[in-house]
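This part of the workshop introduces the protein records we will be handling. An example says more than a description, so a record of this kind follows.
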Amino acid sequence: MKLRGGLIRWLNGLAVGAFVALAGLTVVLTDLGQDFEKNFGLTWLFGIRGAIEAPQDIVIVAINGNTGERLGLPPLPRNWPRSVHARLIDSLVGRGASVIVFDLDLQRSRSTEDDLVFAKAVADASRVILFEMLDGQRQAIFNSNGEQVGLVWKERLIEPVAPLADAAKALAPFPLPKDQIAVDTFWAFKPSVDAPTIPAVALQLHALGSYDKWLDLIERNEALGVGDLPRELGHAARAHDVRALMRGLRRAFLLDPGLGERITKDLDGTPMPGLVEADRRLFKALTGLYQGTDERFLNFYGPAGSIANIPYQAFLTEDPRFAGADLDLTGKTVFVGYSDLYNPGQLDGFYTVFTQRASEGGVDLSGVEIMATAFANLLTDRSVRPSETQITMGIVLLFGLVVGGLSFIPHAMAALPLALGVGLLYALAAQYAFDRTDLWLPLATPMLIQLPAALFVGLGGHYWLEWRQKMRASAALSHYLPARVAQSLTDTGVAPAALNRVVEGTCLATDMSGFTSISEKMRPRELARFMNDYFDSLAVPLKHHFVDVTQFHADSIMCAWIEPEDTDGGASAGMADRQQAVLAALDVADAVQLFLERHTRFQLNARVGLETGRFFLGHTGGGGRLVFSILGDCANTASRLEGLNKYLGTQILATEPVVEGLDNILLRPVGRFQFVGKADARPVVEVLGRLSDMSEAQYRLCADFAEALDLFHARQWANAAVRLDAIVRDHPDDGPSTFYLERCRRYQADSPDPDDVTVIRMLAK
C-alpha cells in the first residue's frame, strides 16, 4: 500500500511537471511569448548585468540643444548651412578619424553653394558615409486580366541630394522598428532593398586598410562567386563600389554556409604573413557580419552617453570647456548626429532597456547612439544571441518537468525550497551565459510562468483545503477587525482577549457634520449606500498613510497609528506615525471635498481631531458579543478636539504633542482649552496644510493671529479686538479670529473672573 501511494505520488508529480512543461512550450513558441521574453527576460538580463564598457574606438559627435547657440546658428541642424559640416569633416579627418558617419537627413538641397562645399569635403575625405532614407508604401498587385488581387508593401531607398550622393564613400539606411515599446533590434542587411545598413557599411569601411588581406583570406578559403570583386577600393571608389562589394561578399557567405567556420578556423590556427592581431579581430568581425542574420539584437552598453559623446561644437570652436577633452580620433569611427544627454524630449530619441526613470531625467537613447551601438556590436562580434529554437524548447521542457515534479513529489516543507532552488540556479546560469557570452537563454517564461505555475499547482495540492478554510474565516473577520488581528485569530486560534493591549500612538477622530438632517431625508437603504460611499472615500487616504486600526460607528471614524514597541520614548518617539496621522487628516479633508463633488445637494464638512498618548486596543463587550475598540483618554480627547472644530470654525485640530517636531506642516496655535469633564487644559493647534501648498496670505494670517492671541493672553482686550477685527475684515471666514474677537468684546463689556484667562473652558462637547 505504501509503495502504491509513493508510485501514485510520483505519477502525479510527473503529470504536474508535464503540465508545467507544456505550458512553457505553449508560451515560448508563440509571438506573444517571444515578445514576453524580450520585454521581461531580456530586460532583466540587461538590468542585472548593468552597464558595460563600450569600445573606445567609437565616438559620437553630438549635436545637442546648445550646439546651434554655441556656433551662432539656428537651434535645429536642418536649418544650418551645410558648409558647417564641411568644416567638421576637415577637423575630424585632421584628427585621424577612420570612418565618418552622418546621421542627418540630406534629401533636400538648401543651398547649392553650401551643398557643393560639403560635397567637396566629403569627396576629399574619402571615408564619409551618408544617411540614405528608407521609404515604404503599399502597392497594388494585379493579375493578367488587370484586376487587383492584393496589396504588397514596397520599400525604396532615397539618396541624399546628387552632389553629396556622388561624393560619399558609401550610402546606407538605418531603419529602426517603431512598432515596439522599446528598440531592441537592428538590421545589418535590409533584404527588402538588398542593401547593407550603416553599421555594416561602417565596419567594412573601417577595415579598408586591410582590404587586400581580407580578400586573400576569402579566396584561400575557396569562397564562391568572389572572382568579380574589385581587387582594391582606393580613394576613387564611391558608394556603388562599396555596395557592390558588400552584396558580393554577403552572397558568398549565404551560398556557402561553411565559409565562415573555415575562415574562423583559419584565423585561429594558421599563421599568415603580415597578419597582426588587430587584423584577426577585424576579420572575425567581418566574418560575423557576413555570415550572420539580417536582423540582430542590440547589445546595449548602458544608458545614454555610454558611448563617448563629444559635442559637435568642440571640434569647431576654441571653447575652454573642451580644453581637457580627448579629441584625438586616430583610427576611430565617428558618428555625427543629434544626441542630447540632458533633454528627455530630444528630437531623435528611442526607448530602450536603459532609458532612465523620469526622476533621473528620463533620457532615451538617441538614434545615432543606437547606430553606434549596432556598429560596436558588429565590430566586437558581440550582438545579443538568442538561443536556437531547439535549445529553447529543450530548456523549457526540462525546466518544467523538474520544477513541476519537485513542487509535488516531496512533502510541502521540502518542495518549496527545492523548486525555488532549481529556479534560482537556472536564473544564475542564464545570467552567467548572458554576461560572459552574450547568449540569451529563455528567462521570463521559466521564472514568471513555469515556476509560479509549478508552485501553484504542486504546492496548492498540499495546502488547498487548509488554505481555503483559513482564507474564508480570515476574509469574514477582516470586515470587522484589523487585518492582522483577523489573521492572528484564524492562523493561531488564540482567544480574543489574548490580543488586547495598551499601546502608545496617535488617535484620529472625524465625523460627518449634518448627519442627522441628512439621515432624515433618506430612506435607510439609500442612507446606507451614501454612508458606505462616504466611508470608502475617507478610507483611501487613511490606508494610504498606513493607518493601523480603523473603527467605524454611525457617521464617525476613530482610527489609530500605533508606535513601534522599540521606540526610546524620547521627544522624537512616534514622529513618523504622528506625521502620517497629520498628513492623513489633510488628505481626509481633501477626500471629503471630492466626495461632495459627487453629492452636490449636501453641505458637509470634515472635522478632524488628533491626539497622541496611551490607549487600549482590543476587544470589549459582554454577553458573548465583542467589538474591537479604541478606548482611553487619548481617543476621548481626539473626539473632543473634533467637536471643538464646530466652535472655532476649523477643520483639523490637534494637541501640541501631536505636531511636535513636524516641520513640513503649517500650524497655528489657537490657545489652551479645558474640555468638559477634563481636569487639565491642553494646548491646541490648527493644522492648515503642507507648507508647499500654503500661500503668502495664509502665512500672514498665522503671524497676525499669533500677535492678537498674545494680546488676548496679556488681557489687553481692546488691542486684541482691534487686531482680530482687522483679521476678520480681511478673512471673514477665519473661525478662530471670530471666536476670539467675540471673547474680547465680551471681556471688555464684562471683565472675566480673575482665573487664568489663557484657558478656554468648554461648557459643551
In short: The chain has four domains: 2-49+387-468, 51-137+147-209+297-386, 502-662, 690-765.
